[in-house]
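Sanity check

After download, print the first record. It should look like this:
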Amino acid sequence: MLKWIKARNTYNYKVDLNEFTGANNNPGYFNCIITPKNLVMFENRFTRSVKRGVSFEAAGEVCFWKVYKFPNRDGLTKRLLNHLSVPRNWSEFRKALHEIADNPSYGNFKRLQRSCSQPAGFALPLTFLAFYRPAAYPMADRHIANWWSENKAKHGYEVFSSFIQENGGRIIPCKQSWDAYLAWKDFCNEYSVKLSKQCKSYWRPRDVEMAVWQAQKKNLSLEKLI
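Expected structure tokens:
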């Protein structure tokens, strides 16, 4: 349990939204630094924007946050903002998020991909889902996929699918990867309950995911919880 706490507490992903080259074109947005201390506030801002149907720019901020380390981060973010600036597209994105959050089917995942102009994406569409409902859904990227492949058996999920990846990197958005994500989601929900009880503090599936992400990057072994 202590390793889980250490992993979550040392999670230090930091993003300066001001670095987006289109920041000045979006008044009131892309004007702060996101750290673990204000991450929940950042998630909540996005959720409110989607539920109220205002401020599609909040989705652009989440996109930039997610692809911050990518060399084409500005282009990806501008493309999403341009897409969602069309009222019909913003409406479809909101509907797709609501549908998949209530019914996480592969068909609804494909709809979410299309709605955010990511027909071949996996990690970014799921980032929107995780930000929209962090009390139920974790994110998934290559670090998570690698950890899942190496550790799922240890934690009692050996019969479940692994993500399909390109040489240990990008997750291929196929049905098997989606099935792996659903198992990963269930694992995060299971461990959020166990960690909340054993640590006597609230853990969300997103918190479990952050601990795993940090553990994978730092080569830290996480104990199986009973």
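If your output differs, re-run the checksum step. Summary of this record's structure: The longest helix spans residues 175-199.
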